[in-house]
Amino acid sequence: MNRLRVLFVFSLTLLPISVFAQIDGEAVRLEGLHEEEMMCDTALLNSELDWLEFLGEDWCFSTDTTLLNIRDFDSSETPSIDTTELKLRLSLLDAQSPLDLSWNPVVHGRIAYFASKRKRHFGKMLGRSQAYFPLFESTLDRYSLPLEFKYLPVVESALNPTAKSPAGARGLWQFMYATAKHFDLRIDSYVDERQDPERSTEAACQYLSRLYGIYEDWYMALAAYNAGPGNVNRAIRRSGGKRNFWEIRYFLPRETRNYVPTFMAVVYIMEFPEEHNIYPIDQAPSFNFMDTVMVNQALRFDQIAPMLAMDQVELERLNPMFRQGVIPAENEHFPIVLPQTKIPAFMALKDSMALIEPELTPEIVFVPEPITYKVKSGDVLGRIADKYGVSVRQLKEWNNLSGSMIHIGQKLIIHADGSR
Question: pTM score, two decimals?
Fold first, then answer.
């Protein structure tokens, strides 16, 4: 704070006297204004550099095991788990969280498995965490959700924004198509906002808030996030009306039974990695050193990366929502994420970038991503059409149906763009 105050006071001393004094002559006045503008630009640039320097000094993330290995474990050692110590650590987490993180034998078993069989995996999760956790924490805090939910994408996607499940869920938070559209995430031939960290995190927080409002229990909300409210409601009925995850657990689908214990174990491992000889590897660039800039013309990643001296793979990693390596900004603006140090160069060179082999830039025509819907008991075309915001006529055209008859297990192709 003192440094910023000194910088502010110093920048004021640089303002030219001509700004504050009455000076005869238009040319002199314009010259003074020009000097003021240059000095303000210089002060702004210096303040940005000063801020980046401050962030660099304050950033203490490290992958150096010589510093992190405070217990002097051998590199291949898997420390044994002492139940008393484990209970104590979980009680510490439990005391500072709205979640119930107290010890139970099911969670103990998951922790023991992760600590012995998944050490390298969790090392990678720690390495990627700095790229996403600041964003997760700030959004969760804004929605008054438990900050421990930042570990949910570790369970869902292994912190991979382009992860895709066999069922078709995508992104850090693993949204299915219909759920994503319900929360206004854009999905088409060029853009998939399920893969955008910022937009998908916002949608995930909205969804989790809504689920908690239904069940008034964090773990029931997590179970519904994984299996859907329908499966949780059926489990409640089969259990005789119980409203606690552990009481309805065996009435849930098999995957969901282990979902909450796995999440609790992940919270523990990510909070106490050094105690199990787990350290960050494959360090990702910190979210704090990134920023966004709006793009108002179609640009390809292979036009941008060379002129910014960036690896195209890294540019794609920072901007996973663009599905074809193209920013389709012909008739609208799109944000691109870049290291803060690269943004001035991008602003200066973006027009020149568009001139690099412009014939390779595709004509931007947005086509919604088709999905495959498997017909279930009780389904009719009208209900399916309403669910996806399309018409019965469109469903028939896309699937070569002459009538309205469909059968259980039949697969329907749906171009769910919401137009009728």
Answer: 0.78
